[in-house]
Amino acid sequence: MCSARSQFFTIPELAVNLGPFLWRGDVARLMRTSRFLYDIFASVLFRQLSFSSFDFGLLESSNGLKALARNIHHVREVQSGLLFLNFYYHCQLAYEQQHASQSGTSLELPSWLPPPQPLRLSMIPLPPMHNLTSLACRSTHLKEDLGHPALDKHPNYGRNYIPIVYWLTRSFPNLVKLDFELFVESKQQLLLFTRMISGMRNLQWLRLVIYTSEVFWAKLPLAVFFSLPSSLSTLRLEFGLVAAHHRLFMLNSMEDAVWDRFWDLQGKEGARPLVRRQGPLGNLKVLSFTFYQRPGMTTDEYVALFGDCPGIESLIVPWSSAQLEPAILGRFIGQHCPKLRNVTPSGIRDDTVLSATILTSMAPHTLHTLRGNAINLDAGILSATIDHHSSSLRKVLLLECMTMTSALIQKILVQCPELEELSLYDYSTSVRPLTLADATSEPWASNKLKKLQLRVAMPDMFYLRQKNQRPYFDRLAAVGTTGKQQSLVWNDAEQRQLALLERLYSQIGKQTELEVLDLDAVPGPTSVKRGAGHSFQFDAFPLMLSLGDPEVGYPGYLDLLRGLKRLRRLIGSFGMFSRDSVLTVGEKEVEWMTRHWVSLQEAHFFTRTITPRECFLKLQEQLPGLNIYN
């Protein structure tokens, strides 16, 4: 009978699907065990290749290069820099020359291609990567590049990179994703780049980081945008000024002789100075524009740009500037991009008018995702946006939003019936949390929440001494001891707060789709005194994870959470080493979690410096893969 191993490896598709989850070193060792396994896993090992400054093993030996040549048809994704592309250009050129020689033909190359240069690294002929689908090329990590084995001894390799990349990408017909950093400082460079990018007919995802000079700054954005292929669905454009150290290393332009040949050729062909796309970017769904160090485009230029991509669904709002009229542009975007669903304001305070105008100019109840931070969203914008899009909002993701109030959080919870994620993440402790009163005054509109991340203000009476009244866990510890009371007694104020807690826990328990619960308990007025490094894991939610004990006199609310069958992560104020948790959460609660939270993968019950209680070690055994440490 065949072993399970033999049966597994007779299904190549199964092995190929397993391969990406294995460490590359293990895959390489597995391939060395037999020719059969080599053939199966070669496509896995060579599918994704990195030739960065810290990962260039294949380039260091002739055996590695020969293996790359044999398996280059398996390559689908490459991460590299200009150094590798320069090296690969010479290797592919050698392959083309060898192939032409063997077939008795002559190799004809464009006159603008730079002549081959002597390389410091060993070189063998390498075929084109015809099946390449994703290319990432970084050109700005120059200090690291100085140690790369592909670095040439001659100083001008950086001058010729645009012709090299253009020539190489013509042999990548299946390229659908390009992440590229480049320098454009002349009209000739821009012309060649627009020809290159416009010819990528299958390109769907594009990120371009383009560095240029101040003289060329105003001409570049629209020239690049209107040369892009209409196949694009995701576009991220970033523009910055060329730094001095870039100039010293890359030099200002290509060799004059190379450019002269190229420019003369364009004159003979009678070509237009710049390539321009015919028709709009009809497939574009995601758009992001970023300008560093200098103002971006004018209002009219932005209007021309957004008028060419009416189908965008996700937008990172462009940075504003003195030459921009944000109200006019905001209304144009909101009205002429009817499919816009996800808006992320940029991180500049001056963009509040532009962001607000876009959000409120959109058709009512069409926004799905709202992202923002403390800088670009004030309370007025948030409130108006929630009112305008309450019926459609699915995700609200806000970082360090100090303008957020408890009333605004309540508005999101009670007015957004389609809400799937509410994430209010704060590094500091200065952001005002949701109060118990606001959290429980009205039913939450949505029962579709998958992630809930926020801070809730807890009454100080549950943590600190109040008018000679000790917190309940101090009194609980005394119950049953000699000469002490036999049952815990709650005063009226505590009972009122317990009723609010029960309503809060009940609201959470109704979220049957919930997968991530990230809650911080913030003890009342003392929260403002806590430092940014404070761990809210020490401030547990009172009795939330307890089943209670009627005989001793304290309630428990864990059973209200039995509907959270899909819960995977429990993060925040759930430390099982706090005074109240040690007294109120034990083996019966752990048994309950084992039965009802079978999907739990992470729970912040303990820190690495605290030894877990025995019952929680058993919980780890009952739920394999569960991490109980923060």
Automatic annotation (TrEMBL):
It comes from Linnemannia elongata AG-77. It comes from the Eukaryota. This is Uncharacterized protein. InterPro entries: LRR_dom_sf (IPR032675).
